[in-house]
């Protein structure tokens, strides 16, 4: 069994290295699912890309269960998030088809449904109430008898209080997704079959060429004398020069210097413990579908992969413990067994904890970054704060960021504009308070717009 900090997902790629000075159209900081998917969309739009990360795929993306769950992830008072989740889920099949073709392998995308179960009467009521909200938003949630649920998944406990079927919640394997993105990014050339690899709204764009992967830490943003973003500085003295810079460092945004003065969008780490298990050799698969639910009010999920492994997650902790929590692991195993008793017979392969980069409203920061006077910093896009939904949101996030950089439009430009309004990275800025001695505000013009909170 491996523990909290396993080896990075990828061995250094042949293109890796820390050259003194690399140039590309776009520098992407962070090689989690968000940075890599964005780099891939940019390559497909004919841009040369450099991706900077000391350990690609080692952040939250390494821990993620990979549930693509726009329905069962619905929470009260998060209405603004639902359109992002459903839009990205709808983009997944085409995103995966193009990626798998370029990568030459599969990424573990499975369109199998999800069952959501409760254990006691309060769980049943909570799930039934949530179902009303989900249905009001046009989502499909079908109540099952326990007999029908157990006919679908015989490993379910006979002592459940309720079961619901959600046909539109699927899964992908995030580690295979990261590996596929790295393979597609660095492939010598992209296949361009009609109707698949050519991004919608961007006819004629072909291939920006293989991306370069720099295994290094970005320490800060480079800015020109006029204030434009011109790439990043690297720890150890190197630099990447680029016309555009996309910041996708997950929870690491606050560690970068050179960002616009007083722009500190609030980001906090919410740790999650998660387990990888496997059915014993020679035993049939435990589950076909993702099973999630409430166990005396506490959420837990089991995500079965085709290779016989089952991912069991996840806790949600806002404490200082960065490695796995013993109490968290205990509760996961206890609650997973309440839904599926056969969990007790699984082999435990891995215990892992990672921080989800969380924003105050659980909505990511995706968009152009402004200076204090309200003007967009030329050449700068941020894409972070994906909290519990980064794997689900990756196709939409990548496409929108790539459109901000390379132009072009998606099939529904009005919807894209709404998504970007929702994810405004300056939405938590607060108005600048006048300081003694400040000049009176001008009668017209943008003027100083914000002094942000942390
Ligand atoms: C236990 C757990 C379960 C989850 N399950 C799901 C799920 O089922 N479905 C779902 O949609 N989401 C899930 N998530 C959330 C999902 O994992 C995240 O939202 C997503 O991985 C965020 O991706 P990212 O690329 O923004 O960040 P990360 O994956 O954290 O990647 C950021 C990368 O940036 C790099 N970096 C940081 N600073 C720098 C720097 N200065 N220079 C260079 N590189 C830098 C890091 O090394 C890292 O590789 C889960 C998360 C956890 C923790």
Summarize the structure.
This protein is an alpha+beta fold and 454 residues long.
Explain the overall architecture.
The protein has 454 residues and is α+β, with helices and mostly antiparallel strands. It has 2 domains: 21-63 and 174-265 and 361-429, FAD/NAD(P)-binding domain, CATH 3.50.50; 114-167 and 269-358, D-Amino Acid Oxidase, Chain A, domain 2 (2-Layer Sandwich). Helix content is 25%, strand content 25%. The chain contains 9 helices and 20 strands. Strands 1, 2, 8, 9, 10, 11, 17 and 18 form an 8-stranded mixed β-sheet that branches. It has an 8-stranded mixed β-sheet with strand order 5-6-4-13-14-15-12-16. α1 runs parallel beside α6 (174-186) and α3 crosses α8. The chain is globular and about 70 Å long. The two termini are 38 Å apart. Residues 29-35, 52-56, 58-61, 63-67, 217-218, 248-250, 252, 255-256, 272, 274, 313-314, 354, 356, 384, 386-392 line the site of flavin-adenine dinucleotide (FAD).
């Amino acid at each position: 069994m491996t523990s909290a900090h396993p080896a990075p997902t990828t061995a250094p790629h042949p293109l890796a290295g820390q050259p003194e000075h690399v140039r590309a159209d776009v520098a992407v900081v962070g090689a989690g699912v968000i940075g890599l998917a964005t780099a891939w969309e940019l390559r497909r739009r004919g841009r040369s890309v450099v991706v900077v990360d000391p350990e690609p795929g080692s952040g939250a993306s390494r821990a993620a269960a990979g549930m693509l769950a726009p329905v069962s992830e619905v929470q009260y008072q998060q209405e603004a998030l639902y359109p992002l989740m459903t839009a990205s889920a709808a983009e997944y099949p085409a995103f995966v088809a193009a990626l798998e073709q370029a990568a030459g392998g599969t990424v573990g995308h499975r369109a199998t449904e999800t069952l959501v179960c409760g254990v006691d009467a309060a769980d049943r009521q909570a799930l039934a109430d949530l179902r009303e909200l989900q249905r009001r938003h046009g989502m499909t949630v079908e109540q099952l008898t326990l007999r029908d649920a157990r006919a679908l998944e015989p490993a379910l406990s006979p002592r459940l209080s309720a079961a619901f079927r959600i046909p539109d919640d699927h899964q992908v394997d995030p580690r295979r997704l990261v590996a596929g993105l790295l393979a597609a990014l660095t492939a010598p050339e992209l296949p361009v079959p009609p109707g698949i690899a050519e991004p919608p709204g961007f006819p004629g764009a072909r291939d920006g060429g293989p991306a370069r992967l720099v295994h290094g830490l970005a320490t800060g943003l480079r800015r020109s004398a006029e204030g434009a973003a011109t790439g990043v500085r690297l720890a150890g003295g190197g630099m990447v020069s680029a016309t555009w810079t996309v910041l996708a460092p997950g929870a690491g945004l606050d560690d970068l210097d050179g960002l616009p003065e007083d722009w500190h969008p609030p980001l906090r780490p919410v740790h999650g413990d998660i387990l990888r298990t496997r059915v014993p050799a020679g035993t049939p698969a435990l589950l076909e579908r993702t099973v999630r639910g409430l166990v005396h009010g506490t959420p837990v999920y089991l995500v079965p992969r085709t290779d016989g492994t089952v991912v069991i997650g996840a806790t949600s902790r806002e404490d200082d413990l960065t490695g796995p929590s013993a109490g968290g692991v205990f509760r996961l195993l206890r609650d997973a067994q309440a839904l599926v008793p056969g969990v007790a017979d699984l082999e435990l392969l891995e215990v892992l904890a990672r921080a989800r980069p969380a924003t105050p409203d659980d909505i990511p920061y995706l968009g152009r970054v402004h200076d204090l006077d309200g003007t967009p910093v030329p050449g700068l896009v941020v894409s972070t704060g994906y909290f519990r939904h980064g794997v689900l949101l990756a196709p939409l996030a990548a496409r929108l960021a790539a459109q901000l950089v390379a132009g072009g439009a998606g099939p529904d430009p009005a919807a894209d504009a709404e998504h970007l309004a929702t994810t405004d990275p300056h939405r938590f800025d607060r108005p600048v308070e006048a300081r003694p001695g400040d000049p009176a505000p001008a009668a017209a013009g943008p003027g100083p717009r914000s002094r942000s909170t942390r």
